[in-house]
Specification:
- The protein folds into 2 domains: 10-70 and 149-204 and 261-340, no CATH class; 78-143 and 212-252, no CATH class.
- α13 (305-318) links the parallel β11 and β12.
- The two termini are 36 Å apart.
- With 342 residues, the chain is of the alpha+beta class.
- α8 (133-146) packs across α11.
- The strands form 4 sheets. Strands 1-4-11-12-13 form a 5-stranded mixed β-sheet. It has a 3-stranded antiparallel β-sheet with strand order 2-10-5. A 3-stranded antiparallel β-sheet has the order 3-9-6.
- It is elongated and about 85 Å long.
- It has helices at 10-18, 24-37, 47-54, 78-91, 93-98, 103-114, 119-131, 133-146, 160-166, 179-184, 214-236, 251-259, 305-318, and strands spanning 38-43, 57-59, 150-154, 173-178, 187-189, 198-203, 205-207, 261-263, 271-277, 288-291, 296-299, 321-326, 337-340.
């Protein structure tokens, strides 16, 4: 797990900076403040990235756009899933039903399974019902994988690997965004409509195995089946619509575990991820973005001069501190260093 540094309030920091004589030491202290309070978004120097920066837009994406196919992809034991659901339907329906806030759907489903049917008909009904579970589970896994919006950041703005992988071999740039501002900045749909949702920045955990989502998918599917049965029953019987059954109690914690767990082979990224609270699943995939300016911009060590000029102008317009990275041949270790552009 990444351990985020303790945040330093800017009014306190500014007073402290004024105590340092203007010059290299103050610039060094300001750089340390940016590294402490900010997370980093690495960018290739393409027109789209530069345009989004100049417009002060930071877009959300889903796992479909991530470079790790395992990202946000849970593990599900299908034999355990089938056995557990069959056991629930066959033996534990009364106990399960007691957990439901709305008993209408449960009562209807229970009556179909247990009242007025022969043993053979019950077995036939269960077999038909279970035959769809595998397909439905695959669809649920894909739905969760493809439709949870988030923004990925690194807690290391000087990682040579990150500059190589995400900033076009050091030819791109890095944006330093304040951690608190990411959680409070205005959010909009691409249409311009504002999105009023809470957000939180979470550290990613790195493990050797994927999160086990078997129990999660079981509860998710049963919840969906009850929702569908509730709606169908009320339509057929002319009853007034009521709220759907509540989401199962560990949906949010399990969702966050699934979304925030990656293979330990990616640990060099020191990643944090901005998610909505509660975590949302949006099949419509409406584009959302934050209206936010980076506190600082770092130019890559291999960036072309014309791009440097363009980014320097944008940094001035945004009021962002501008830094330049370089490879220092006078130090022996493999480090990227940077300094403020005057």
């Amino acid at each position: 797990m990444n351990i985020s540094p303790e945040y330093i309030e800017y009014d306190v920091a500014e007073k402290a900076l004024l105590q340092i004589q203007d010059g290299p030491e103050r610039r060094k202290a300001r750089a340390a403040l940016h590294k402490n309070n900010c997370v980093t978004k690495y960018r290739a120097p393409d027109d789209r990235s530069i345009r989004s920066l100049s417009e002060g837009k930071l877009f959300f994406s889903t796992a479909l756009g991530y470079n790790d196919p395992h990202d946000t992809l849970m593990y599900v034991s299908f034999p355990n899933l089938f056995g557990s659901i069959q056991g629930t339907l066959s033996h534990y329906m009364p106990t399960y039903g007691e957990k439901q806030r709305d008993k209408t759907a449960y009562n209807y489903l229970s009556s179909v399974l247990y009242e007025g049917l022969s043993k053979e008909r019950k077995e036939q009904y269960l077999k038909s019902f279970l035959s769809h579970i595998g397909e439905d589970a695959d669809a649920a896994i894909k739905r969760l994988h493809d439709n949870v919006p988030g923004i990925c950041f690194s807690n290391d703005c000087l990682s040579p690997l990150m500059w190589a992988h995400y900033a076009d071999k050091h030819r791109g740039f890095a944006l330093l965004y304040d951690r608190k501002e990411l959680e409070t900045a205005p959010c909009f749909y691409e249409s311009g409509e504002q999105v009023f949702s809470h957000r939180k920045l979470y550290d990613v955990e790195y493990k050797t195995t994927r999160p086990d989502g078997t129990e999660f998918i079981e509860e998710y599917l049963l919840n969906q089946y009850l929702k569908e049965t509730n709606a169908r029953y009320r339509f057929l019987h002319g009853a007034n619509p009521i709220d759907s059954p509540e989401e199962h109690p560990f949906s949010q914690s399990k969702l966050r575990e699934i979304i925030l767990t990656k293979s330990d082979e990616w640990s060099y990224e020191h990643e944090s991820r901005l998610l909505f609270r509660p975590v949302i699943i949006e099949p419509d995939r409406k584009k959302r973005y934050l209206s936010i300016k980076p506190r600082a911009i770092i130019l890559g060590a291999q960036m072309e001069e014309n791009k440097k000029t363009k980014l320097s102008i944008i940094a001035k317009e945004l009021g962002s501190t501008l830094y330049e990275a370089w490879i220092d041949n006078q130090i022996r270790d493999y480090k990227v260093v940077f300094q403020e552009v005057m």
